Amino acid sequence: MKSHLIFVLCLFTAIAGHAQTFEHYFENRTLRLDYLFSGDAARQSIYLSEMSVLPSWAGRRHRLNQLPLTGNGQITVRDVKSRQTLYVTSFSSLFQEWIATDEARTIHRGFENSYLVPFPLHPVEIEVTLCNARHEVTARLTHTVDPKDILIRRRGLSHITPYRSLLHSGSTDKCIDIAILAEGYKPAEAGVFYQDAERAVAALFSYSPFKEHRNRFNVVAVMSPSEDSNVSIPKEGVWRSTAFGSHFSTFYSDRYLTTQKVYAIHNALAGIDYEHIIILANSSEYGGGGIYNAYTLSTAHHSTFKEVVVHEFGHAFGGLADEYFYENDFNSDTYPQDVEPWEPNITTLVDFGSKWKDMLKQGTPIPTPVSEKRKYPLGVYEGGGYSFKGVYRPADECRMRNNTYPTFCPACERGIKRIIEFYSE
To answer: Of 156, 197, 330, 346, which sits most exposed with the smallest number of CB within 10 A?
Structure first.
């Protein structure tokens, strides 16, 4: 599904000129930042909603001021006194996708977003920025956080959602922590959810490069209960009461399954170590969604569940773009053709040297004709990122293009591997 992201820096570019030591600036707790992104196609704004503190920090303790990918938004944490950048992270958002829709031209809407940063020892300035498809900043919010602020809410000390460990490879500072949430499972269906979560783990770690790096991940299954089974299907007039209010037909695309109840997602995870989120929907409908550094959402009982949950995690974890395209789409607004996309697996050839050019076999034609795909398994094939012309993908087939292909292409594999190494080395 669409994961509209913006621009790419050189991998692992430092935001500041030297490394940070975690213990000098942060304690082993998490500052959760809840924002409301609002606006329309012409103008966007960012508002702070609430701040919370969680009992521990499950994120990285190294490369604190570096980014593996820039996404379509960033959060920067700076020391108030020295102005030094202490931590930076990037993301995508459903709001950024929505502002490209026709609806955004006629109505003003707001979307929930929550982000985690390490809890500071001293006052910090936090800057949040959103960018458009041309890499231009469209909204910015800067606010100061005093760690002694009595209105920072404490969460996760009691009433923790029941959960089970499905994979434990080591401590949170050494491993990547994934939480799998239940959506549309009644309390009596907990057993079904845990089985589905096990299937999701088996699916994910059956694909390279995840299977070769299985020992760098921790996974828990969190049984967040719903009043109703299944999820909402608007095209059928069916609305259900579920933990996160997930529904199909996001932006009127029938198979696009998302939720806007982001605060509820993070409330359900309070007190549990997590960095990345997979939500399983108790449904046999086909669909899902993946948003970079936000969440993966997939139905658990469709015949293509394995393929879909891995594809969507490719978006949410690896920052991969969709490699499929529509033959009647010659100039999608998603990827302006005079701008290089930041996702590692598509290019407009504006800055192809920053992508998989170094991986090509000598003599590979650019662009690469599909008729020569056997000769050049890795090439530069036109069509990708929803556009028939002007956007190029690394291989004719890939897990990010369709549900029938059994592997990620080499460029996608390298992109995911780099993300794994960024978080765990």
So the answer is: 330
